């Protein structure tokens, strides 16, 4: 199926917002979406949630004959899978242009930066070596697949344990997982990618773009960095985007500090997972399925797309219902009383808002009892108790 | 008892006879008394001491994916699967059916490319879906169902069918009935184990059965068997699974209730 076309209106809205330093989901330009990393029961299974983008990676290994050109090294194979599950225009079993781009960038970031010590994967020179395969499944495409895929792949590689092997002469004995403790991979450094969407001919850049932003941007800048602030991948794509070198440097600086934070977070998640495993009764991804009572599923989808700034809503609501600068909710046996204080100048209120000038509307509403149609059984009554001068 | 075998595949593999019988046409099983007590909130019910006669804890999260029309992350014990539904979509010309909807099912394994085993599962799920979706309501369209295996805790086939049913419910496609699938196996001591975990499956078994039932009269929609056991045991296993399917239907009800109501939370 074809992808839903992006309207000019939507595109202009995003571009206009970005020019004003704002984003549709309420983030600042250098802010990432909420990242969540979970691991499965099997070794080398990692699920990454980047906002609504969801990617899962699974690492597996087999014993193969090493390449004749690199006879003393194991192999690393990265495979990205995109199915219709992620987006309507993806086709199962066939990577499109986007899929190939993601696959290649993950390969460049993880394989070509040599973060995995492949020599340690060799069992017998020219005869047997481990082939590590990383399958990356894109489950939901809400923008910035590259970052999510790299993080998932790295997480899965860090989490993975391969079966231990011993040599008996020239005979290789592979020990089962319950026979001997499995061996983790040797990871030399932790590379991650961070993407920026470029707007206004490369003058404005937004970190971690959503799908909407990706599609309305002029181009994209992908930076691969590790926790030592070393650059290992860089790609600028887009139709005729010019970007100043200062912009690349400032992007790299922002990305480097984010990469350090992300690697720290990944390590924390790995440590937490290891601790959970030791406790026993580990159920992996089951815990990432929301508990029955925890989530209102219909709401979670509705709020995901457009988020209105919270303070605006509050202001409007107050203006309409009360027009009183200071309000305090007091709950007392089913009756909700709104206590208002006459002192306008003091600013101890919990709700942040601009003090409104005492208008004529305010005086009218004093001592009025307002019944609010509420679904609850006791019909709460809203009272304004104190007089305003 | 009238049985119509729509497809009968017989394969000789590893000297064990695997046979797959797919009943496209429902047939009535023996009527019997149902002992299930439907508790208010818990999902795992009727645990008997002697054998495992309960199904593992069910958990689901509907509308997990923002792009799909219907999606669910479903777990049954340690098994976790994710299912998504897109549809009704515009069908490709070669897939278009003039009188009904084309149902496309993709089963994605965790590692490697989908092989024969995955295609087999796809086929079983597809026949089940064809039965429960009111396909003739949407002629010349297609529905695309994708199942992603996320964690193997045994019984992936039945978990997939249950996840697909929940995803279809979430997508709002008109359905004729719901479907609940239950797996059980006959171990080497001829004991029937309901909803086995991965360890039990790996220990070896004489036969493994997966049955799917509809929600109206609890009639059989699908039966998938591998291994060799006397017919008596097959019958017994089917009846046990039929009883267990009530728990799953009850769980569906709760999931839908939870989705549409805020008051219950």
Automatic annotation (TrEMBL), chain A:
Gene Ontology cellular-component terms listed: cytoplasmic exosome (RNase complex); nuclear exosome (RNase complex); nucleolus
Domain of life (superkingdom): Eukaryota
Keywords assigned: Cytoplasm, Exosome, Nucleus, RNA-binding, rRNA processing
One MF annotation (Gene Ontology) recorded for this entry: mRNA 3'-UTR AU-rich region binding
Compartment(s) of residence: Cytoplasm; Nucleus, Nucleolus
Coiled-coil segments: none
GO biological process: exonucleolytic trimming to generate mature 3'-end of 5.8S rRNA from tricistronic rRNA transcript (SSU-rRNA, 5.8S rRNA, LSU-rRNA); nuclear mRNA surveillance; nuclear polyadenylation-dependent rRNA catabolic process; rRNA catabolic process; TRAMP-dependent tRNA surveillance pathway; U1 snRNA 3'-end processing; U4 snRNA 3'-end processing; U5 snRNA 3'-end processing
Pfam families: RNase_PH (PF01138), RNase_PH_C (PF03725)
InterPro entries, alphabetized: ExoRNase_PH_dom1, ExoRNase_PH_dom2, ExoRNase_PH_dom2_sf, Exosome_comp_Rrp42_subfam, PNPase/RNase_PH_dom_sf, Ribosomal_Su5_D2-typ_SF, Rrp45
Occurrences of domain Exoribonuclease phosphorolytic (ranges): 32-163, 189-257
Annotated CDD domains: RNase_PH_RRP45 (cd11368)
Predominant subcellular localization, coarse grouping: cytoplasm
This protein's record includes keyword Isomerase: no
PANTHER family: EXOSOME COMPLEX COMPONENT RRP45, EXOSOME COMPLEX EXONUCLEASE RIBOSOMAL RNA PROCESSING PROTEIN
Protein family (similarity comment): Belongs to the RNase PH family.
Protein name, entry field: Exosome complex component RRP45
Organism: Daphnia sinensis
Automatic annotation (TrEMBL), chain B:
Pfam families xrefs: RNase_PH
Location of the Exoribonuclease phosphorolytic domain: 55-174
GO molecular function, one term: RNA binding
Keywords, in A-Z order: Exosome, Nucleus, rRNA processing
InterPro entries named among the record's database cross-references: ExoRNase_PH_dom1 (IPR001247), ExoRNase_PH_dom2_sf (IPR036345), PNPase/RNase_PH_dom_sf (IPR027408), Ribosomal_Su5_D2-typ_SF (IPR020568), RNase_PH (IPR050080)
CDD domains to which the protein is assigned, alphabetical: RNase_PH_RRP46
Compartments (UniProt record): Nucleus
Predominant place of localization: nucleus
Gene Ontology annotations for the cellular component aspect, listed alphabetically: cytoplasmic exosome (RNase complex); nuclear exosome (RNase complex); nucleolus
GO biological process: one example: rRNA catabolic process
Protein name: Exoribonuclease phosphorolytic domain-containing protein
Organism: Daphnia sinensis
Organism taxonomic ancestry: Eukaryota, Metazoa, Ecdysozoa, Arthropoda, Crustacea
